[in-house]
C-alpha cells in the first residue's frame, strides 16, 4: 500500500514525482452466485503544493513532446505508479481491479504499466470526450485493455459516445430512475454488455436487479442482517457459539477436546488446520488432542470466530465476501491499534474481536446486543460495536469509512486517533485485505471449507 507525501517546492521533475504517492482502498464486487469476483479501487489522489498546481493552466493538460508534464498528468502518473505496487496487488488476492481513469491517465503512456489482464478501466460519465480520447481508447483496446462505462444513471451524450467501446456498464441503482432500470438492462444485455449494479445496501435491492439479469453487484447488502437465513455456515451455529463461550473462559485441553468431539465438522476442520498450515513440520497430527496442542487456543479461537462467517457452500474462503470483509476488518483493527500509544496484548486482542464480531448480526439476525451478550464480550467491545464508543469505536468507524473510500471522514477521525494518519489507514487496510485473502493457505489463518 502506498501513502501520500507532499512535495516541497524544490522537488520538481522526476525526483519530485517520485514523492507523489496515492492512497487506495478496495470495495468488493460480487457475481450472480454471491461470490467475490473483483474489487473496485477507491483512490485518494496526491495533492500538489498550491504553487505547482497553479503553475500551468488546466487547458494544457494533454502532454506535448519536450514539455514538462502538467500537474494533472503528474498526479495521474502517481496513481498508476501506486496501482502496480505489491501491496495493492496483494490486496486484490487474485481478483481483477476496477479503477476510475481520468483523461490524463488515458492519454499518458504510463497507463501501459497496468497489466491489461488485471485491470478494468472505468470511464466516468464526466469525461470530456473528443476525437483524441476516442482514438486513444481504441488504441488501448487493441492492447487488450477493457473498459467500464461508470456511474451511469440514464443515457446522455457522453454515454452514447463511450458505449461502443465499453464491455461493461456500471449503473448506479441508487440514483438511476427505478422505472428506467428494466428497459436499460434489457437494451444493454441485448447489446452484449455485462452489467454491474452499484450502490446496493439492501438485500431487496440486490434481488430486484438480480431478477433483471445484472451480472455483477457492488455494495454491502451481503453484510446486512437478512429477514431469512440466506447463508449457511459450515458448522451448526450453536456448536460454534458453544465453542466460543468455552474459549472465552481459558479452557483446559480436555475441555476443548470434549466440546469439539460434539461436532465432527469442527474436528475435521481442526485436524486439517493442524496438518496443512505448517504448524508441525515432519510430523502428522493424528489425534484431536495433538491438533489442539499444535494449534493453540488463541488460534483455535480466531479460527472459530471467522468460521462463523464462512458460507456453507464448497467455496474457497478468498471468494466468500462476508468472511473476507469480517477478516479484513478484524485484522485492520488489530494492526491499527498497535500504532496507538499504550496498546498492549489485551488491547490488540480486543481490537480483533471488535472487528470480527461487528458483523455477527448478518449471520444470526435478531438483536445484535443479545448476540454479543451470548458471546460474553467485554463492555468496551460491546460499546464499540453498538454505539461506536471509545478508541475501539473510533477505529471501527475508521475502517467502515475506509470500506467506502470516504477519505474526508477518515481524515477527521484520524485527528482523534493521533498519531494514526490517513496514509497509514489506507496502508493497513490493504495489508489486512492481503492477510484475509490468503488466510486459508497460511499458518496464520484458516483452513479451506470442504465439508
From TrEMBL:
Gene3D superfamilies: EAL domain (3.20.20.450), Hypothetical protein af1432 (1.10.3210.10). It comes from the Bacteria. Coiled coil: none annotated. Residues 233-423 form the HDOD domain. InterPro entries: dGMP_Pdiesterase_EAL/HD-GYP (IPR014408), EAL_dom (IPR001633), EAL_sf (IPR035919), HDOD (IPR013976), RNase_Y/CdgJ (IPR052340). PROSITE patterns: HDOD. It holds the Pfam family EAL. PANTHER family: CYCLIC DI-GMP PHOSPHODIESTERASE CDGJ (PTHR33525:SF4), PTHR33525. This is Diguanylate phosphodiesterase. It comes from Paraburkholderia ribeironis.
